[in-house]
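not sure who needs this but someone in the group chat was asking about Efflux RND transporter periplasmic adaptor subunit from Thauera sinica so here u go. i didnt clean anything up, its just raw.
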Amino acid sequence: MKPALQLTLAAAVAILALGAGYLLGSRGAGEGGGAPAPAPAGGERKILYYRNPMGLPDTSPVPKKDSMGMDYIPVYADDRPDDGGTVAVSPARIQTLGVKTEPAGERVVDEALRAVGRVEIDERAVVEVAPRFEGWIERLHVNAIGDPVRRGQPLFTAYSPELQSAGEELRIAERLRKDSAEIDPAAAQSAQRLAEAARARLRNLEVAGQTGERQTFASPAGGVVLEKNAVQGARFMPGETIYRIADLSSVWVIADVFEQDLARVRVGQAAAVTLPAYPGRSFTARVGYIYPTLDAATRSTRLRLELPNREGLLRPGMFAHVELATGAGTPRLAVPASAVIDDGIRQVVLLALDEGRFRPQPVKLGARGRDYVEVREGLRAGERVVVSANFLLDSESQLKAALSGFADGDAGGGVAAAAYRAEGVIEAVDLAANSVTLAHGPIPALNWPEMSMDFGLARPDLAAGLAPGTAVRFEFEQRAPGEFVVTRIDEATPPAAGTAHEGH
């Protein structure tokens, strides 16, 4: 057989094979009403259809090109958005946004209840020195606020005519009782009763055992002098406070706990107290009392914590941080606190699926700790959630917009409203039509190859002073299917052939 004849037969066989394939493909498309192609063998991803690369509402069951020669983009079965608003993010965008994920797992949630308070004096350890008689202070033995005193230590010496009179009555009664004991028993008994009355009077004046005109008063308790209201030589009246003394070997911390946390507090509960004055040091305390009233303005109740102060470091008036241990110590399914998005109505986490896809997942939360939050419903152990991303740290309005965008994803897995960056060369500027023709390199985020196309201008002055042939860097966004508008354009050095920079 001649070579020419062999070539002719081979060409005929190839044409017949192509024709048969075309007829089979057309018949399958017509009978299936535009059904997607069957799943390829070998475990490959199933293609549902092919969509227009420019975002236009045009699909095809078979591969094809648009009017500019761009390939239609395949849409896979596992890319179809569901009711949860799944969104796909390119690896470049994930890296740019700084997305980090962490699996949900069993952890002990730190449920410590934190409150603020202040150090106060133990009211049960405060005494006042207030004489029950009139007199004059002849000498002060303790004469400064803040001085430490011991129980029984002399505080001051006073002169009092009232004490002198009571002492004389006692001495006369005692002498009369002795002198008349053998001569007149009835007089002796009367003198005895008079002596007992004098002693009772001195006891009531709290100077029993001292019958002179000058009396020395001792401290009734050990502690620190908080108040001193007299000076040497001053006159005092009955009931007037001269000293106020407090024992600071133990103190109170009064903390305010919000109404919703009261169920987590009980008397006898252990607590840790820290003070700004002693960073890094913690003091052990216990809840001694829960006050029975609620402050209507702050919706909080006071707690009284008792703690020892043997070193004297805790001074009344100090600011304190209180941490009450309320956790049961049982591991629970939990995620980092930064993974929860709370808009005030619902709580969601962003599930990290395969191939850069994310889906907002509503959850029901339980105990909140310092770093982790218990998840009671909506997640399983091992599912990964987003814990860090720049768009999650944006303002509340942007966060709500992001959630809305997740929930309203288009059914074609289309392009999210975002800004894209690229480099190219100006081919033409049409200010009358408010458009510019740019030759740019491939843009992977949109699956665009290197090509020339027309863009709208957000403002006519964006292209002012730019002539054809100028190398530029530009940003654009998709405002409608097939409508791409340049929002910024700057002159740049000519890009290398076949390169472009894309990002959001």
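also Residues 113-122+248-324 form a domain with the Elongation Factor Tu (Ef-tu); domain 3 fold (CATH 2.40.30.170). if thats useful
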